[in-house]
Amino acid sequence: MTKRSIELTVNGRLRKATVPPRMLLSDFIRQELSLPGTHVGCEHGVCGSCNVVVNGQAVRSCLMFAVQAEGAEITTVEGLAQGDALHPIQQAFWEEHGLQCGFCTPGMLATAQELLAQNPDPSDDEIREAISGNLCRCTGYEFIISAIRSAAAKLREANTETTLQPV
Amino acid sequence: MKPSAFQYERPEDLQAALALLASGEDTRILAGGQSLVPMMNYRLAQPDVLVDINRLSELDYIKDDGDVIAIGALARHAAIKSSSLIQAHLPIIAEAYSWIAHAAVRNRGTLCGNLCHADAASEMPAIMQILEAEMVVSKVGSNRTVAARDFFVGVYETTIEADEILTEVRLPKPGAGTGWGFEEVAMRRGDYAWCTVVATLRLSDGRIAEPRIALAGVEDCATRLAAAETALKGQAPNASLFDDVAEAAAKATRPSASATSDAAYKRDLVRALLPRVLNDAVARST
Ligand SMILES: Cc1cc2nc3c(=O)[nH]c(=O)nc-3n(C[C@H](O)[C@H](O)[C@H](O)COP(=O)(O)OP(=O)(O)OC[C@H]3O[C@@H](n4cnc5c(N)ncnc54)[C@H](O)[C@@H]3O)c2cc1C
Ligand code: FES
Ligand code: FES
Question: Which ranges carry the 2Fe-2S ferredoxin-type domain (chain A) (predicted)?
Answer without folding.
Answer: 4-80
